[in-house]
Amino acid sequence: MRLSFSGTLRGVAAFAVVALLMVQIVIVALRYVFSLGAPWATDLLTYLFFLIVSLPLVGVILNNESVRVDVFSGRFPPRLRRGIDRVALLGLLFPASAWAAWNAVPMVRTSWRVLESSPTLGGLPGFFVLKTVTALVFAALALVALIVGLRPGLYGKEDQT
């Protein structure tokens, strides 16, 4: 069985969901049962939530799995829907994601230069990794939007729009 890159990212995100739930239970137990605070644990929840939200994004675009509210477009012919998707990918998602990735580069460089840790006192180290993943997610979204938007079949299957 061959796993795709986006499938692997989804698996990591699924593992992060389970980890987030388990860590949250531990935090609640520490706080309310043992009266102990753990700033690092709150940071861990933030890191896990970020992974849960950001890792599957590329697969969502590649597989055309985004959630849509089809009030009008459900009545549009497939060719028009593909055209709208193409404009959205090339005219909205690509430029916005590319701009965000490009503008994140100085922030990431500075963060790596000082090996930035959590802004929370007693929080987790490695905040620079989180910032790097943010820039990489935007860059990947821009690249995928460009590639999918320029493909003749858009999402690979003409009937899937």
How would you describe this protein?
Helices cover 69% and strands 0% of the residues. By secondary structure, the chain is an all-alpha fold. The protein is globular. The two termini are 27 Å apart. The mean pLDDT is 85.
Sum this structure up briefly:
The protein has 161 residues and is an all-alpha fold. The chain has helices at 5-33, 39-54, 57-62, 78-113, 127-150.
Structural features:
mainly alpha; 69% helix
Helix/strand layout:
Elements (H helix, E strand, L loop, with lengths): L4 H29 L5 H16 L2 H6 L15 H36 L13 H24 L11
The CA-CA distance between the termini, in Å, is 27 Å
Distinct helical segment count: 5
Count of distinct strands: 0
Order of H and E elements: HHHHH
Helix and strand content put the structural class at mainly alpha
Mean pLDDT: 85
- Biggest sheet architecture: none
Strand content: under 5%
